[in-house]
Predict the structure.
Amino acid sequence: MSRVEDKIESLGLKLPDVVPPLAAYQPAVRSGNYVFTSGQLPMVDGALPATGKVGAEVGAEQAKELAGVCALNALAAVKSVTGDLDKIVRVVKVVGFVASAPDFTGQPGVINGASELLGEILGDKGVHARSAVGVAVLPVDAPVEVEIQVEIAD
Amino acid sequence: MSRVEDKIESLGLKLPDVVPPLAAYQPAVRSGNYVFTSGQLPMVDGALPATGKVGAEVGAEQAKELAGVCALNALAAVKSVTGDLDKIVRVVKVVGFVASAPDFTGQPGVINGASELLGEILGDKGVHARSAVGVAVLPVDAPVEVEIQVEIAD
Amino acid sequence: MSRVEDKIESLGLKLPDVVPPLAAYQPAVRSGNYVFTSGQLPMVDGALPATGKVGAEVGAEQAKELAGVCALNALAAVKSVTGDLDKIVRVVKVVGFVASAPDFTGQPGVINGASELLGEILGDKGVHARSAVGVAVLPVDAPVEVEIQVEIAD
């Protein structure tokens, strides 16, 4: 098993199977030394643990946990095209979309659930640039969606 | 005429003229082996066929068609910097923004209008990673906006 | 001092200190010949000059100015990893998120505040592809957020 997957297990987590796309695209694409993942919803075993807007039906703490699930699903998507997560040189970019009640302004704290988990799993390789925004609504009423861009070794 | 443009015509479509930017930017930029397009609105001959939020003023099926128009406009933007769509190695990434009524959660189906058309036109080269999100409102009240990143040959 | 910073001063502006991230990420990351910045809020000396939605609490003209502040902060973020803004070969991509009242459709004009300033500062190197969208709400209730991707010399 790869060192990155070892680390995931040591955190008490499990790299999930890749989440099948909801539509006509792939979970991730490799181009040159980069892997671009599709936007990942916080699916667990094919279902969303919660739906609705953060700041209304979903609390900020729960949304932060769900952002971590998105990050794990993103790593599964990366593995689906690289075969091995140890090929990650670094996470370059994270974009986090938070389905937000109009007065919820804590998007950075929510997306920290993804950023911090990537840091725990990947160490210095997990430190990235990031945008976090509050959107009106997400596919299948998910509270959060995260996409990542990763640089990989040849 | 290029094979890709042949294919577009065989689908009963026409590659439009590039849509002039609404502001101080370019329809697309080439950098290295990539072309990044600006976010494309579903302009047809300089006008939007429909305006408003999907799930309210605009139906999901019409929005899906409009997402296909965005994809065609994106290919026109790519051509504006490459001169030839046959230089496309693959579509790497698609981001689709759907101006959404707060309870509309069918963004993946809408953006399929872009993804499926790219697949029909480009075959395996059209398969991409993708994010689809529901935003509050789009420029000039467009129902949908699509940007693409394409890898091209030297 | 670099030519780019000279130009910034000649416009009566000042390159700010890099804005510390609100969370577990970096202001910018270099990967290969690219720098990706995090989404930049219009922070001035650590505070937002205005908060709220554009088209409601914040006017379009003020939002355009704030988008320019975001662009300056983005250049500061680029400098934080390159050391020298003269290494910029070109701005490849700008994504602008405008926290928008549901009936505000002037996002392109707002994000022009970033695009035009990048053009004034960088000339031809500042011309970019761009997406502008209207989101529900932004971190700490900022009216606008801008991220950029820049190609740099070796």
